[in-house]
Design a protein that fits this description.
The protein is α+β, with helices and mostly antiparallel strands and 144 residues long. It is built from two helices and ten strands. The protein is globular and about 45 Å long.
Length: 144
């Protein structure tokens, strides 16, 4: 059995399987303060955990109050062996979020500072995209 901490995912061996359960999506960020501001203020996520990695990096787990899915922001300071040159948005395709009204949500996020990528008129108004400060795309999928 492996436990990461109180209130966090617990991995247990189950009848012949390995007991894996999806927990979060980790994304590398260049400026932790800027990214935290974006994901909390612009998107409305809440910080649920934070810590220091044994090798010197910092992680912050975020999620919406009504969701079990998390985003983990990973920051590696200069000089850290994992602090490689960042290529904006290339390491990840996108994060998908379900919303009631994609066009309205798109407008709200752009007004709060999200970078517009694919907006109304460029595609169906049910699949729109903005980007975070590091260039990672965020898809707004309208629920039916």
């Amino acid at each position: 059995m492996w436990e990461r901490g109180k209130g966090e995912a617990v991995l247990r061996e189950a009848q012949g399987g390995v007991g894996l359960k999806f927990w979060y999506t980790g994304i590398r960020v260049r400026n932790l303060k800027r990214s935290l501001d974006f994901y909390t203020r612009v998107l409305g996520m809440k910080e649920v955990r934070r810590g220091k990695m044994p090798h010197g990096g910092v992680y912050v787990g975020l999620r919406f109050p009504d969701s079990k899915n998390e985003i983990e922001l990973n920051y590696y300071p200069r000089g850290n062996r994992f602090a490689t040159k960042y290529v904006g948005g290339e390491e990840m395709d996108h994060l998908g979020f379900v919303v009631k009204n994609a066009k309205r949500t798109y407008g709200q996020l752009v007004a709060r500072g999200a970078k517009p990528i694919i907006g109304p008129g460029d595609t169906k108004d049910t699949e729109l995209y903005v980007a975070d400060p590091d260039g990672i795309w965020i898809e707004l999928c309208q629920s039916s």
